[in-house]
Amino acid sequence: MALALVGGAALGAAFQSLLTAVIKVSKKFAGFNSILKKLEATLESINPYIQEMERLNDELDRPRMEMEKLIQILQDGEKLIQDCSRCYCYQRIGYANKIKALDASLLRLFQVDVQAQVSRDVKEILAILKSNGFNWNYRGVSDEYENLGSCNAPGPPEFMVGLDVPLKELKRRLCEDGEPRIVIRAPGGCGKTTLAKGLCHDNEVREYFKHILYATVSKRPNLIAIITKLFWDEDERVPKFQNEEDAANQMELKLKKKEESGAVLLVLDDVWCGSESLLAKFKFGILKSKVLVTSRNEFPEFGSTYNLELLNEEDAMALFRHSAIPQRGSCNYTPSNSLVKEVVCHSTLIYRTCTYTSSICIHFCFLSKPQVISFVSGAQLQIVGHCKGLPLALEVVGRSLHGKSVEIWRSRLMKLSEGPSIVDSETDLRKCLQSSLDALNDEDVMLKECFMDLGSFPEDQKIPATALIDMWAELYNLDKDGVHAIANLHKLSSQSLLNLAVARNDASEIDGWYSDAIVMQHDLLRDLAIYQSNQEPIEERKRLFVDLTGSKLPEWWTEEEQPQSSARLVSISTGEMFSSRQGDLQIPETEVRWCNMQIPDPEVLILNFNQTQKKYKLPEFIKQMDKLKVLIVTNYGIAVELTNFSVLGSLSNLKRIRLEKVSIPTLCNTSMELKNLEKISLVMCYKIGQAFASSTIQIPEMLPNLREINIDYCNDLVELPEGFCDLVRLNKLSISNCPKLSGLPEGIEKLANLQVLRLRACVGVSKLPDSIGSLHKLSFLDITGCVKLSEMPNRIDGLRDLREFHMRRCPGLCELPSSVKNLVDLESVICDDHTLLLWESFKQSLPNLTLSVREVSTDWHLL
């Protein structure tokens, strides 16, 4: 497809001429077709960046000479393509290599030189804005709002059926009738969110609404955090809100501004009962702005209600088959259409007696009137299920039967036939889902325990797989690298008990690194885990979930003689209103202060918080947790300072610490010694350098047995603390997505036991120290995404134990040192088309080497 002429006469003409030649020759000469198609794709992908560069040059009045290098490459490329059309057969191989080199040079130019120029121009514009009173960071937002996430709608539902009528009705009411505010109402698990996502991705809706903003509200919402997320935009400044009223006013102004270019749809998903005051802040008097809410409740003062109805028989059968019956491949048993129709028809009749309405029938759940199931001799075996019709329940049980044998279907039917006949509350839904947990007991007791642990994290929040790996490694003696833990997550996902997503699809498959693996769980499944855990007396519970709203404590916790729990896992979640307490008085503070609590002695402690205070103080009762092996602290709000690390000093069994989205300047300003700590993970944390620079004791004395360090998305990390190089027992060092990191210290050579070194997507790293060659035990090296890295150390052959090397998205590397030919034990290099060329000349010298190509993204903003 020919592209439109880009800005700038000379640049545009050169670009268009090259593209036209590529298309013409590709059609005429089959011998160059695949290579030229790839070059054509590269040209199409870089066209937007040519336009952006031209626009910035115009705005800043840059001289045209800055584009001369690019213009010359394009003109030389056109001549090369024309010469190809006239070459002889024996010359084609040579010309093919030249075309590949042209493609690589264009990629390299745009991933390094042009990126640097665009970055310079953007920074100059930001500098001008800053001089006028704006304070932006490199992404255009204040650091404290950096990781709130996008306000774009989530991806479209994988499978939708029975929602055509609701979708059409909502489109009519929003677009044609112009209703300003609509609440989609249905019980939990009925498909409200699925319908909202489908609406956001409907072509007619996207054409009508030029701007679609999406935010999940949840049970204990933080209005300022929600509005801040809706403001988050790469090209727009996030203001500092004074209070909720100011945030709401700013939001209305933002919508008015967006309306200048088209209508706005704001979706607020999962709004809970008691949120009337929050919704009132979104009652904007703006003609083109519409608000869509999903909830289990009605909010008549806010807007009109749309009740999600039951599926008809045909749609219910379609969803049932999608969930329970394999669509491809072999299976042990497939019920007949007549049987499926009987099952679904019966379930629909049951639903018509329900007090709740339902919209999605995804899970195959066999709850109905008790009845005797007969199997007729000589006829096809019939498995009859009695479905309650709630989508979540249908999907969970259906997936658990997916591809299973006749005996398992028969066994499941017998269990489910004993259930209640009518669904009239969410408690009954939990009982329905219980049958799927019973199935986990039959297959894998450990799998059920892992499912139950997921109740430790707040609703509607992403659960990092790495946090689960840390928990399960110590609770269940799973492998420390997480392979078995991820396998369990895949098993739970296959039965629709959670959703598992990996941002980089090949990350875990390539190197067992799960930093981008995220788990999401439906609210009702989380409720089920908590409900099941709470069925045991407190003294006998394996896990203790404590939800602190305001300063209110659970009744059992305030009794004079508290029950003694033997829970191995304790999870404490605090909302934004949690504060210090003296008797019946709540005292506002700038930091959270815990009252005197008696707490069990667990092996895993999880602290979840979403605070507006400036500081979050680790509770004193941690000192008494002599058995504690894993501490996970996660902040779900705006970054705050974490204090009182001294409570960890007496924990002789503590092996793993994971901190997320906190500032840690005082982490090491005490003389505590974490003698048995083996792993520390810092995610979206701030002031790491300050924390270790201010240590009152030497880092090796504080962390003598540390074996693994993970640092991810820490935006202010400029250099690795020098003291890390003295951790002689360290086996793994992983640093990823730290844009300001400039490199590694020369002292890294002292890490004699280092086996894994990962520098992934650290775009500021331009060079590796020569001393890296002293890491004789290093077997795995990853520099993927280090776009500014221009050379490899000459002493790289000192990595004599190197087995696996990942080096994708490294466009700045133009050659490898000749010493790489001495890496005789190197078995695998994961590369892209560019880095593949660097290795091909060494392949003869490395007989054990396998080069695996993964496609490189031409969009460096995705790094």
Tell me what you see in this structure.
The chain has 863 residues and is α/β, with parallel strands linked by helices. Among the domains are: 123 residues; 144 residues, Rossmann fold (3-Layer(aba) Sandwich); 131 residues, no CATH class; 77 residues, Arc Repressor Mutant, subunit A (Orthogonal Bundle); 122 residues, Ribonuclease Inhibitor (Leucine-rich repeat, LRR (right-handed beta-alpha superhelix), Alpha-Beta Horseshoe). Helices cover 35% and strands 14% of the residues. The chain has 24 helices and 27 strands. Strands 9-10-14-16-18-20-21-22-23-24-25-26-27 form a 13-stranded parallel β-sheet. A five-stranded parallel β-sheet has the order 2-3-4-1-5, with helices on both faces. α15 crosses α16. The longest helix is centred in the first third of the chain and has 40 residues. The N terminus and C terminus are likely disordered. One of its GO terms (molecular function) is ADP binding. Pfam families: LRR_14, NB-ARC, RPW8. Keywords: Plant defense, Repeat. One of its GO terms (biological process) is defense response.
